[in-house]
Amino acid sequence: MGKSETGGGKVKGISVAKSKNETALLKESRYGPLYYLRRDWQLYTLLILPLVLVLVFKYTPLAGLVLAFKDYKIAKGFWGSEWVGMEIFQELFAKPDFARAVRNTLLLNVLDLLFSFTVPIFLALLLHEVKNVLFKRVNQTMLYLPHFLSWVIIGAMAYQLLGEGNGMINNLLVTLGAERIPFLQQDTNWLISYLAIGIWQSMGWGTIIYLAAMSSINPEMYEAATVDGASRWRKMWNITLPSIRPTIVTLLIMSLGGVMGGSFERIYALLNRATTEFTTTIPVLVYRWGIEGGDISRATALGLFQALIGLVLVLTADRIAKKMGEDGLL
Question: Nearest CA to 266 among 202, 170, 205?
């Protein structure tokens, strides 16, 4: 009898607590936005400056996309220029430079995605297995420092090291009796150098992100695997990689958005007159048409095309990730 009463008391207590929570939720739902604005006004005040910056520098320039549908003339101004509809895009798609730029952009960015995206994962897995904390921190610092260098500095360093005439590495090769190698003066060699420099510049920063994700893995999982006799390779494959898979998927979706973009600074810092096969990309073409040539309408149309393709790729990758059971971005 006493047991049933106790059980009934527990059930009654739970139901009372549940009813109180429901009452509190209903009470809060009656308050409007002004209530929360008055209650958390300090937090909303801190959001004012970031929101203004986003509106001014991100959303306001979107009005300039209308130039892709106008024959823009500086003398006539933004509103006075003639509306030509899709004529700019028709001319754009017919130009040989457009097809070449799309091909090179896809080639460079797909190769960059294959190497610059995967290398940080392997590097993070290796550093995660290092037990010496001092050695690990020193290597992390040395690896992510290149991320903070501008591409102008990296380009100057590249020509000082890899230049065919007075490059340090070529001078060393001549001293050893070998021939000079045109690392940056021949198209294929330039492509390899471009990818290698990009990996060196970005792998440290990507490694930090994956190491941060690995730090949240429960150590008891590794202890249980050790008891079961699992090797380091099996722990890495069955515990570490599945645990950081959401981070990998998220970064992959974000990277796919830049497949049709790429870095203008990176290409412009490494290009020269001897290598022209792979250096004509969409960002470079936008700069040449818009800044150097003054054809604002055509440059805007090319930039809009690039942005739309990037948006489609991101949305497609996000949908595929959700079908595979991941959270995605949206």
Answer: 202
Hey, CA dihedral for 185, 186, 187, 192, is it positive or negative?
A: negative
- Among candidate residues 318, 259, 254, 230, the one with its CA nearest the CA of residue 103: 259
Q: For residue 277, which amino acid is it?
A: E
Residues in contact with 83: Cβ distance below 8 Å, sequence separation at least 6, in sequence order: 69, 70
Distance CA 70, CA 65 (A): 10
HEC profile of 263-311: CHHHHHHHCECCECCCCCCHHHHHHHHHHHCCCHHHHHHHHHHHHHHHH
pLDDT at 205: 86
- Helix, coil or strand: residue 71: strand
Q: Position of tokens 């590097």? A: 123
CA distance 143 to 183: 23
Report pLDDT for 153.
93
Report yes or no: 144 and 204 within 8 Å, Cβ to Cβ: yes
| Residue range 256-282, pLDDT digits in tens | 877 777 778 899 889 888 888 888 889
Are 85 and 69 in contact by the 8 Å Cβ rule? The answer is yes
Question: How does DSSP classify residue 72?
Answer: -
d(CA 162, CA 196): 12
Model pTM? Answer: 0.78
pLDDT of 11 reads: 47
Distance CA 88, CA 300 (A): 10
Per-residue pLDDT tens over the stretch 33-88? 787 788 888 988 999 999 999 999 989 988 888 989 998 888 888 888 888 889 88
From the CB of residue 136, how many other CB atoms can be counted at a distance below 10 Å? 15
